[in-house]
Design a protein that fits this description.
By secondary structure, this protein is an alpha/beta fold. The chain is about 25% helix and about 20% strand. It is built from 11 helices and 12 strands. A 7-stranded mixed beta sheet has the order 1-2-12-11-8-3-4. Strands 5-10-9 form a 3-stranded antiparallel beta sheet. Strand 6 and strand 7 form a beta hairpin. Bound molecules: 6-phosphogluconic acid. Its EC number is 3.1.1.31. It holds the Pfam family Glucosamine_iso.
Length: about 325
C-alpha cells in the first residue's frame, strides 16, 4: 500500500475533546441497544457467516475449525498460508461485522491494538471495502496505548492514523484517542470516564451479564510471550476486575508507560479477532490452542481471552507451525 504523505494535524483529537464536540447519535435509543439475548447474539459464528464458502476464491485457507473456549463458547481458528490471504479474510470478516452492527444498532464500535495488526487491516483501505463500508457508523478505540505524544513514533494512534484511519472516511469525532497531555494514571482515568459517557449515550453497548462496556469488535494482537493489550505475563494487572481502563509503568515491552483495557472489558466484547502472524508467536499459539502448557506452567494472558461473544483466531502458517 502506498502510504500517502501524512502530516499530523496541529490539533489532534483526544477522547475528551472529541466527546465535547460529538453530538449524541440521532437514532432512537432502542435501535442502538442490542440486548445480549437478541437473535444476533445467540447465533453462532457459522450461522452469521457461512464460513469457508464466503471466503474470497483467491484465498488459500489452510484450515478452520471450531474450538472450545473456557466459557464453553465456540471459537474459530483460521490458518492462512500467507499474510496476504490473512489480510483478505480479516477485511471481509470486519466488513461483514460492520454491516451487521451498522444495521442493528446504527453504530459499529471497533477497538484496535498496536503492532502488526494495522498492517493486517490493509485490505480495508482498498476496493471494494473502502467504498462499500459505511465508515460514518464506525467508532474507533484502542485496547491499549503508549503514553507518548500522538505524533511520536511509538504512538498506537499515529500507527493507526498513518496506516489506516487517514485513508478511510471515518468521522474525526468518532476516533477516540487518549489525552496525551496527562500522566499514565490520568490518561487511564480520563479514557474510562469518557467510555462511561459513551455507554450512557448508547454509542458503546453494555454487557447485561458483566456491566462492563461491550464493544462490537475487538481486534487484538498477541506478543511472543502471550501478552495481549498491555496485559503481560505475571503482572498484577492481569487480575484487575474493577477498572475498565488501567495503566502500567513497567511494561516489559517498550515504551514502559501505557494504558490498557482490563480483561473484564476485553471479555465483554461481542466479537474478538486475535490476529497473530509470524513464527515468533508459534510457541504461545501452541500453548493457547494446542494444549502446549504443562501443569506447572503459568497461564498466558492470551489464554484469559474468553469473550461473551465469539473469538476468532487469524493465524498465518508460521504462527500455526507447532499446532
Ligand atoms: O501497543 C502494543 O504494544 C500492543 O497493542 C500489543 O498488545 C501488540 O498488539 C502485541 O505486542 C503484538 O504486537 P505485534 O503484532 O507487533 O507482534
Amino acid at each position: 500500500m502506498a502510504s500517502a504523505a501524512f502530516s499530523l494535524p496541529s490539533t489532534l483529537p483526544t477522547l475528551s475533546s472529541t466527546l465535547s464536540k460529538s453530538p449524541k447519535l440521532s437514532l432512537p435509543l432502542h435501535s442502538l441497544s442490542v440486548p445480549s439475548n437478541s437473535p444476533a447474539f445467540s447465533l453462532s459464528f457459522s450461522q452469521i457467516f457461512s464460513g469457508v464458502s464466503r471466503f474470497h476464491p483467491a484465498q488459500k485457507q489452510l484450515g478452520s475449525r471450531a474450538l472450545a473456549s473456557p466459557t464453553g463458547m465456540a471459537s474459530d481458528k483460521r490458518v492462512f498460508d500467507s499474510g496476504e490471504d490473512l489480510a483478505v479474510s480479516l477485511a471481509k470478516y470486519t466488513a461483514d461485522l460492520s454491516d451487521h452492527f451498522a444495521n442493528k444498532r446504527g453504530a459499529f464500535t471497533v477497538v484496535l491494538s498496536g503492532g502488526s495488526l494495522i498492517k493486517c487491516l490493509r485490505k480495508l483501505v482498498e476496493p471494494p471495502y473502502v467504498d462499500s463500508i459505511d465508515w460514518s457508523k464506525w467508532h474507533v478505540f484502542w485496547v491499549d496505548e503508549r503514553v507518548v505524544p500522538k505524533d511520536h513514533v511509538d504512538s498506537n494512534y499515529k500507527l493507526a492514523h498513518d496506516g489506516f484511519l487517514s485513508q478511510v472516511p471515518i468521522l474525526p469525532g468518532h476516533v477516540y484517542a487518549i489525552n496525551d497531555a496527562l500522566s499514565a494514571e490520568g490518561a487511564a482515568e480520563d479514557y474510562e470516564t469518557c467510555l462511561k459517557h459513551l455507554v450512557n449515550t448508547k454509542v458503546v453497548d453494555v454487557s447485561a451479564a458483566s456491566g462492563f462496556p461491550k464493544f462490537d469488535l475487538m481486534l487484538l494482537g498477541m506478543g511472543p510471550d502471550g501478552h495481549v493489550a498491555s496485559l503481560f505475563p505475571g503482572h498484577p494487572l492481569l487480575n484487575e476486575n474493577q477498572k475498565w481502563v488501567t495503566f502500567i509503568k513497567d511494561s516489559p515491552k517498550p515504551p514502559p508507560e501505557r494504558i490498557t483495557f482490563s480483561f473484564p472489558v476485553i471479555n465483554s466484547s461481542a466479537y474478538i479477532a486475535l490476529v497473530v502472524p509470524g513464527a515468533s508467536k508459534a510457541d504461545a499459539v501452541y500453548t493457547a490452542l494446542g494444549g502446549g502448557s504443562s501443569q506447572n506452567a503459568e497461564t498466558l494472558p492470551v489464554q484469559r481471552v474468553a469473550p461473551e461473544g465469539v473469538l476468532t483466531w487469524f493465524l498465518d502458517k508460521d504462527a500455526a507451525s507447532k499446532l
